[in-house]
Amino acid sequence: MAQLTPDADPPPRRGRGRRPADQVRAEILTAAGDLLLAEGMAGFTIEKVAAQAGASRMTIYKWWPSKGALALDGYFTVVAPTLAFTDTADIVADLTNQLVAFVHLVRDTPAGRVIAHLIAQAQTDPELADAYRQRYSGPRRALAVEAITRAMARGQLRPDIDPESVVDQLWGACYHRLLVPDLPLTEAFARTLVDNLVRGLR
Amino acid sequence: MAQLTPDADPPPRRGRGRRPADQVRAEILTAAGDLLLAEGMAGFTIEKVAAQAGASRMTIYKWWPSKGALALDGYFTVVAPTLAFTDTADIVADLTNQLVAFVHLVRDTPAGRVIAHLIAQAQTDPELADAYRQRYSGPRRALAVEAITRAMARGQLRPDIDPESVVDQLWGACYHRLLVPDLPLTEAFARTLVDNLVRGLR
DNA sequence: GGTTATATGGACACAGCGTACACATTGGTG
DNA sequence: CACCAATGTGTACGCTGTGTCCATATAACC
Questions:
Q1: For A30-34, A38-42, A71-75, B84-88, which range has the lowest pLDDT when averaged over its residues?
Q2: Domain carrying residue B31
């Protein structure tokens, strides 16, 4: 996961006094991220994080206001958010590639479940909801919107469309299948989404 | 809410012995639905439901396997699922009307928050997830898919499109804004979604 | 070296879940 | 009508997790 050294099992035993703040913080964050990937938000507990980090719960409560805040920080610590958006001047190819990559991230790695659980938790945790929007969904939306806007300027797309709504119809549709899996989330599905939108249904 | 008689405040006091099973069941269900609309899944507690229904927790545990199951049953009891899909032979108008109605349901009634919380809870409650798919999202999807399929047969839409993906790009996009409210869920948004898809982006 | 900041262990009260047991009452059976 | 089984009720228990407080130990800083 995020362990550089294979230090394996829970840190053996810890003395009582103060330890370097940054070190403890880092250990808590990687522990939080690991636990999140391993169990999702279901088994994500302040107590477990503290135990796995070899820290005390008090320390966590001092630095993070809510469980959600800690989870989000831990997630970012472990997954190193890859926020790249390749821009090859072919908007259809770019959207397709980006969407297919997202589908694979969600389907083939634990990140999918974690994202689903974070969104779920955000429904009843306003602080997490804000943080998630500002630090994750917001930036990701912005990248897609920029790409679409550039394509509009290049004349590849109609100039009067609303890029934000397009984002919802591509990524939002995938999130929908992630959160309410009536049907599977496949690469073919991602390609169909782009095709539907670009060509139109008529 | 679901009270036919204004019997108001919590059932005063209850004797100790057995009561008619159906009656207790009904009282628990309306209590569950009311509580859900009032507080959402956040404050939805077996104990509160039992208190409001004037029943004992044991009874609830006997009949419902999980908190989610009870919540879903309660929700259906109170909202009387309006599963109508007007079919006026004009698919664009039908989709728009249906989607706009959905947006208003989600925005202007407590049902929106309840749906969001149910989906959230379903992320960590497999039984609820199954029940939600089979009893709610599944049937609703089916209605939209049928309408789209009929429109394809009538020649109003291309014959080679995948109706299911269209559903995700309309309703799924709305769910996305409900669950990750980066941007508001408006009637104009709903109309834009239909327009984007039908006309195409080029 | 002395002071301050901070991590730690331990204890507490509280909420909610899930279960168990004894008792009360109803519904049905004979 | 008498009895039995089914089922709701009250109460209590153990468990997990939360959030808070305290005293103590130790690092970091001046």
A1: B84-88
A2: 21-79
Q: What is the pLDDT of residues A50-109, one digit of tens each?
A: 999 999 999 999 999 889 999 999 999 887 656 678 889 899 999 999 999 999 999 999
Domain final residue, candidates B38, B55, B79: B79
Residue B2 tokens read as 């679901």
Contact B157 A182 (CB under 8 A): no
Asked whether residue B19's C-beta has any atom of DNA/RNA strand D within 7 A, the reply is yes
- Looking at the structure, do residues B113 and B184 belong to the same domain, yes or no? yes
Considering only alpha carbons, which residue of chain B is nearest residue A170? B169
Nearest nucleotide over every DNA/RNA strand to the A15 CA, judged by C1': C8
Q: Which of A7-11, A64-68, A89-93, B132-136 has the lowest mean pLDDT?
A: A7-11
The dihedral built from the CA positions of residue B118, B119, B124 and B125, taken in this order, carries a sign that is positive
Are A50 and A140 part of one and the same domain?
no
B193: its two tokens: 């979604």
Locate A14 and state its tokens.
């810890």
Q: Which amino acid is at B10?
A: P
Residue A21: nearest nucleotide (C-alpha to C1') = C6
Is position A45 within any domain? Answer: yes
A-B Cβ pairs (cutoff 8 Å, strict): 156
